[in-house]
Amino acid sequence: MDEDAFTELEQEFYSVINKANDEYFNFKNQLEKLLESYFVRIHTDLFEVIEN
Fold it and tell me: Is 29 exposed, middle or buried (0-12, 13-18, 19+ CB in 10 A)?
């Protein structure tokens, strides 16, 4: 394998890694929002049960 082919494969590899990394952080933000709203609801329900 010549140097140009290796460099091209390496660039493609890092391109996929960067895309996966970006998708992970995008998913993390969405997951954080979902978990926050879920726990607020659960804790609100819990407090209502305790008060009753």
Answer: exposed
Q: pTM for this structure?
A: 0.47
Torsions phi, psi for 2 (to 5 deg): -80, 170
Query: What is the tens place of the pLDDT at every residue in 3-32?
Result: 777 788 999 999 999 999 888 888 878 888
Return the C-alpha torsion angle 27, 29, 35, 36, nearest 10: -170
Cα radius of gyration rounded to whole Å, the chain: 22
Written as six digits, the tokens of 18 are: 């960067």
